[in-house]
Model the fold of this input.
Amino acid sequence: MNFDKELDVRGLLCPLPILRTKKSLADMTTGQVLKIAATDPGATIDFQVFADQTGNELLLLLETTGEFTFYMKKK
Done:
């Protein structure tokens, strides 16, 4: 999947991945896609709730051994 910006929050626990994602999205324009790499198991729920609450679109979630990759489109 194509993306415009990448954010690495591996090793960070809630709420830091969401806070850093929010900051990264603030610097982006509408329609751009942010790729986020995370290791917090709670991130799958956190990112879905964040997307629902903010209107940003969670396009894709990939999971590999202990690592999650999210693609989020800025509203």
